[in-house]
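MOLECULE: protein
FOLLOWS: sequence and fold
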Amino acid sequence: MLLALLMSTLPVVPITTAAAAPSDALCDEVAPGRQNVSNQTVVLLVHGFNSGVHAWTGGDGAMISTLSSIQGVTVRAFDYGEASDEWVTHPDVGPRLGATIYCYGNASAEQGGTGKIVVVAHSMGGLATRCALDEGCGGYAGNADRVGMVVTLGTPNTGSFLQKAGSGAHTGVGGALGGLCWAGEVGGAPVKEVCDQIRALGTSNASRAFVPGSRQLRALAPFPDGLEVHAVAGEATLSVRHFFAPPLRMAAGDLIVGVDSATVGTDDDPPVVVDCGTWSFITVPGSVVPGAVEQFGSCWHGSETSYLGFVSVASQFVAEYHRRHGCGLRNDAPAVTEAVAQLPESAGYPWETNAEWYDGNFDPCATLSAVVLPIQNGSISSARHVLLFSRGAFVGTGTDEPWAGAFLNHEASTDDAVVIDYSYMRPWDASLAGASGRTRLTFTWDGSDVRVDGQLPDDMVNPPAELTISPEGFSTAFTWGTPRADAEAALGMSFELTDMGDVGDCSQAALDGIIGVTFGVEDGVVTSASVQEVLDVGLVPVTDTGIQLGDSVTEVREAYPDAVEDTDPSDAFTTRWRWTDGQHAAQFVSFDGATVQSMSFGLAGSVSDEGPCV
């Protein structure tokens, strides 16, 4: 009722059409220092109604200094203080803010940044931002693409409940606050600030626009589709007490804007609401008008730019946005995670999802960058895929198939070129770790696609990615009884031999990157292999029957029904299951009688207690 009496009737300010690009002179005026934003994330602060840029500098939180402390972020402020009691379509409000967004956004793109800024807006500043992003409200063409995220604090998207006539809880809040102000500014500075804002709200040129359902609010376009929006509200409790009677308590929003109005259009579910505590008043004897303040709340609409709770929330949103979208080397960016999820597994092995294991120089602002992706629990000989990104967008893999031995050459790579060095084994190499084969591919962005310079040698082969082991042989590479040289040629890698001393012409052998498998090489022939339980991780073969270490012995009986079970005479707790067809053999060992701890496969004479190698 108080505000209804104070309001003046104004015509609706007409919505204008999209403006041409601002001149350099206008950019110099509205976006000072735009020439040195570099590739940092620009955060533009937009103050609210009846305010100025000073709103961002005071209080416990000090919004400007807090946001400026985030590495990679630069903070600017838009000032329309002299017109802050005008509606957002005023040339010095929404349209001028539109020019500011245009100038900073373009400066970011021209200096190697993302070309998108972040807006943190208080109160009517959020409505001014909506106008600035709307070409029909005096905004500039393309401004919707120059803003990556908006954070609003106490923005009256559907108006202020103080402007709403009639009855209801919020009208009661308005009556209580209005009564307090009419009774005289008792209670000190906080109450005076609230009363000053109420009077300004009721007498300003923008007053009618704040009435819920006003023509001005209806004419204002919402934020563009797809824009990330976090609308933060304050929630205080208003308590009015008459002597010893129980107090009347009511939800009061931030004393100016209700929670429902402040959180319209937010992406957060549930909306982010900052607790502003309880404001308590006591009535004057013989009157229903509040006359004294018993307790001040912790915050209200006018302190949302500086109160620590709001500053903390805003800074968290900005820091997270910069982590996801800002410039800088960051292999854990969402774009990388999304690209990894698109790739099919490598021969049944999933790709690593922990970015700490990535070798890359991903930068959303780089013309071309890369991440070299390993498989989970892989080794040097395991598959690695090169993921390429242009300006943060995934543009494909470097090669159709993944290759082991792929490494990013950080020193040789540039903003628009990615250099990948490959190591590969030659016949005389013992393992990929000591491989003598070298080649290089250079990937360059030509403005629309990736150009590749160099090629992989014809004799370059990958170490096996998927291995099965069975009584007949090892994977599809060779059968037991194959000469060692032929087996190595089939694998594309060499055995590392350990001489067994006086145990005949017998050696134990291993393959680089294949963990827990010991091969038996007798008289130059690969005769068998044993799979042991190990703590290390790597490329571990599976059996052709699907039995793996740790499986139940029941599965062994089902897979090999003719296997003979016996107990180790020297160890009553060890049980063996032996199977043979006369030419090939398999043996499974359990130390607990329940699960498989080791397995051996090979030629019949090589897989037993008497087997000379394994």
User: Anything to note?
Assistant: The radius of gyration is 36 Å. Confidence is low (pLDDT under 50) at residues 1-16, 165-169, 535-539. The chain has 13 helices and 29 strands.
